Amino acid sequence: xxxxxxxxxxxxxxxxxxxxxxxxxxxxxxxxxxxxxxxxxxxxxxxxxxxxxxxxxxxxxxxxxxxxxxxxxxxxxxxxxxxxxxxxxxxxxxxxxxxxxxxxxxxx
Length: 108
Known about the structure:
The chain contains three helices and four strands; from the N terminus they run E-H-H-E-E-E-H.
């Protein structure tokens, strides 16, 4: 199945890159973003690899979130493709996730 990174997910990756480029250097930023992108690859064959995201059960889509080794979650849903709609920093307040996802859905 094809993996689609939505514009919002791409913006999140860009923000992560920009942050780490400043605080840790370009090579570290590249490595972290690469790790996040690579973490998504198994989803193309194992769509339901990640559990349903309990913080987002109020939405009609069944959102799943796949944790990466760099403290991020790839928030996605499955339709005709796998849509990654957010890259969530697990160190952030989880209550904000619902608002972020709502904005991301409007942009899809």
